[in-house]
User: Which sequence fits this backbone?
């Protein structure tokens, strides 16, 4: 099983090398040698890349805005995940919401669903629908990288986005009968998605329970402080009463 690797932002320039082996959504065909005709000469430009034949720097990918094909901005590409064996970019990490990096939700998106915007090369476009992105498995905090890059979690990501393709096509329609293997794969994907949803619900319940316990402790601490203040006040009153009732000693005695 291949282990996915998250690439730190300061080293993302090196991702351009890995992108050479990726799908044609980012890079054009190899240019012809001098004196030889271009491989695509006289043919439709079916393999032309969104980057107009230029290699994309990793530092230009991270931080780029990501839009749907309908022009809806979904967030920014915060990171990319590489397959260390193939050297290819396998996933993009989409950052949604938050303020100054706080409270941001991160969603891992298969890289074959992302390509550079032809009209605005500084932006990227995903063929996944807005609702599909909003309902995708997500995480917060850098302490979760170790779990979200595991094969089991990435299988849930693949299962969630299995209905989309790089051409924006949907899964086979009713007239296209899937094979037995496809049915089994679909069932496995559904089970993986259900497992991911159950785990997410469990984490949410645990988080809610922790928050409730923390709130209860604050209430107890406040009540304790209030009781202590009342005790101090009562002691002060008693001391005042004792000093007021003390009989003064007559002069000369």
Assistant:
């Amino acid at each position: 099983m291949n282990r996915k690797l998250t690439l730190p932002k300061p080293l993302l320039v090196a991702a351009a090398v890995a992108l050479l082996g990726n799908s044609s959504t980012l890079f054009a065909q190899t240019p012809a040698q001098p004196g030889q005709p271009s491989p695509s000469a006289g043919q439709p430009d079916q393999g032309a890349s969104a980057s107009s034949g230029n290699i994309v720097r990793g530092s230009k990918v991270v931080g780029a805005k990501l839009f749907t094909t309908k022009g809806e901005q979904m967030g920014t590409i915060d990171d990319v995940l590489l397959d260390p064996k193939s050297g290819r970019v396998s996933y993009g990490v989409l950052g949604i919401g938050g303020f100054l990096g706080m409270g941001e939700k991160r969603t891992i998106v298969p890289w074959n669903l992302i390509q550079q915007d032809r009209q605005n090369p500084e932006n990227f476009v995903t063929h996944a629908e807005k609702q599909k992105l909003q309902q995708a498995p997500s995480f917060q905090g850098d302490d979760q990288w170790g779990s979200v890059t595991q094969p089991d979690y990435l299988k849930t990501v693949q299962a969630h986005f299995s209905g989309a393709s790089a051409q924006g096509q949907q899964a086979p329609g009713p007239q296209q009968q899937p094979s037995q293997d496809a049915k089994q794969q679909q069932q496995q994907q559904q089970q993986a998605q259900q497992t991911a949803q159950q785990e997410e619900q469990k984490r949410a319940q645990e988080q809610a329970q922790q928050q409730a316990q923390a709130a209860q402790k604050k209430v107890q601490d406040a009540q304790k402080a209030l009781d202590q203040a009342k005790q101090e006040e009562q002691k002060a009153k008693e001391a005042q009463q004792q000093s007021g009732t003390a009989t003064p000693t007559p002069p000369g005695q």
The first helix runs from residue 15 to 19. Residues 7-53, 165-177 have pLDDT under 50 and may be disordered. Residues 24 and 47 are 7 Å apart (CA to CA).
